Every structure is written in C-alpha cells, then in structure tokens.
Amino acid sequence: WKRVTLRHLEAKYLTNQPITMVTAYDYPSGVHVDRAGIDICLVGDSVGMVVHGHDTTLPVTMDDMLLHCKAVARGADRPLLVGDLPFGSYEQSSQQAVASATRMLKEGGMDAVKMEGGGGSRVQAARAISEAGIAVMGHVGLTPQAISVLGGFRPQGRNLDSALQVLDHALALQSAGCFSIVLECVPSPIAAAVTAALKIPTIGIGAGPECSGQVLVYHDLLGMMQHPHYVKVTPKFSKQYASLGNVIQDALSQYREEVSSKAFPSPVHTPYRIDDEQTSAFL
Ligand code: KIV
Ligand code: NA
What we know:
GO terms for molecular function: 3-methyl-2-oxobutanoate hydroxymethyltransferase activity; magnesium ion binding. By secondary structure, this protein is an alpha/beta fold. It has two domains: 6-239, TIM Barrel; 245-270. It has helices spanning 6-14, 27-35, 47-50, 62-75, 94-106, 120-131, 147-150, 160-175, 188-197, 218-221, 228-231, 244-260, 277-282; strands at residues 19-23, 40-43, 80-84, 112-114, 135-141, 180-184, 202-205, 213-216. An eight-stranded parallel barrel has the order 1-2-3-4-5-6-7-8, surrounded by seven helices. Strand 1, helix 2 (27-35) and strand 2 (40-43) form a beta-alpha-beta unit. Helix 2 packs across helix 4, helix 5 (94-106) crosses helix 6 and helix 6 (120-131) packs parallel to helix 8 (160-175). The protein starts with 5 loop residues before the first helix and ends with a helix. The structure holds 3-methyl-2-oxobutanoic acid and sodium ion. 3-methyl-2-oxobutanoic acid binds at residues 23, 42, 44-46, 84, 182, 205, 215, 217.
C-alpha cells in the first residue's frame, strides 16, 4: 500500500484484522509512525497535554493543530492522516464544523478529521462534514474536551444509562456517515457490544481487546514522560513499550558531564582543520 485509504481500512475490518493507530505531533514522530507500518496516524489534540504541557486539551486552537498537522504530513506518507478538530472549532454550527474540517485538509494536509461527541448537534456536524466530502471519525465514551461537564477524566459507560448513551451516540454517528469511531475509556463488554452493533470499525483506547482496532498516544506508548509531574496523569490503560524518557535523561546528563569535564568534544568530533599555511602562521 502506497497510502492507506478508507478502502484499505474497510478491507482490514471485513477480514477481522485489527486496525492500528498512533498519534504524532511533528515531523520526527510522523516519520516514526510511518516507518512502523501503522495504519492511521492521528494528529490528536492531546498535543496540548503531551507537547505543550497543558492539563487539558481545551486550550488547543485550530492554528495550533494546523501547524502540527503540516509537520506530521511532511513526515508520514503512508498512514491515513486524521486531524483532530480542537475544542471550539466545530460546536457552534454545521457551517463552522465544515469550515474547520476543510482547513484540516486544505492547509493541514490531512486525509480525514476526528470530532468528539455524539449528541444531536454533533451528529448534524458529522453529517455536514461527511456530506462536504470529508471523511470523519467519531469519538465517544470519555471525550476529554467535555471535561467541564464530565467533571474530570473519568471512564464512561459504567452504568446502564451511560452505556446506552455510548451505544446511542455511536449508532447516530455511524448513520451520520462516520467511517470509524474511537471508543475511549469504556468497560470492555460495552466496547464489545458497541463494536458488534456497528458496521464500521471501532478504535479502542482503554476499551479492551474487542474493538476493531487500537490507538495509543505516542508519548505514553514510548514512555517519554517519566518525570514526577507527568507520572500522575499517565493513563492506566497505556502500555509503555519503551522508556524513552529515561533514555533521553541519561543522554542529556552524560552530555552535561562530558562538557563539564571537557571529555566532549574529543578529536573525533573536532573535524575541521586549517587548510593553508598562512593562517597557521598567524597562530
Ligand atoms: O487526541 C488524542 O490523542 C485522541 C486519541 C486518544 C484518540 O483523541
Ligand atoms: Na483528541
């Protein structure tokens, strides 16, 4: 596959092959995700937390997103590129949603967009985006942009009302034309039931093994942030496949020590020689 498209995702879904998705925020992470053969690369608004150091995703703007999308698009040629619509960029009206989604493709270089929530006006926005010719991914369960009304980053779908709402929203987003839906932080049996009820793939995060695919945040997966502040908010469901935070800290400390002790730069890292005798004569 030169470039993953919705048709490739559908083929995987129909043959029960799990769809792989990871976030990326800049050129190097885009390259890494591409080279790993990941199907979908999400430029997530989680960028506000893992890159910009905010406590929530709420401060992220459309302009922030576009800058990150452009950098990722330069690095990732093969995965389907999905740009996350940030808080405040699609809630007012379907027109606003289509305008923001259009910018994600025209300016950001994305192939598709993702938006949170499955209530009435969100479903209309999803339909409008899809009718404008832009592939749209839904996102239900824990929707971090709704932290103000959810009262924190809390799992959803843990009682009957909440579980039925997750299912309801997922079905509504499917009929609005979404090509896939992220299920975040819901109990595994609920995610399994929603996945079984839909005819489009679900992508789980903290939603157990029975979704049609899985997504993790780049920095979480790589164990990038291990300093005390971040450890508090590293989600329980995120497996760390590496401890890059430690690798980076060790490398930086070693560099500091070698500069302090004048072990760096050694002759190997001092490549330039004077190439005429006149200059040498001056020294
Ligand atoms: O912003 C993000 O990283 C996301 C994923 C966790 C799905 O929305
Ligand atoms: Na997001």
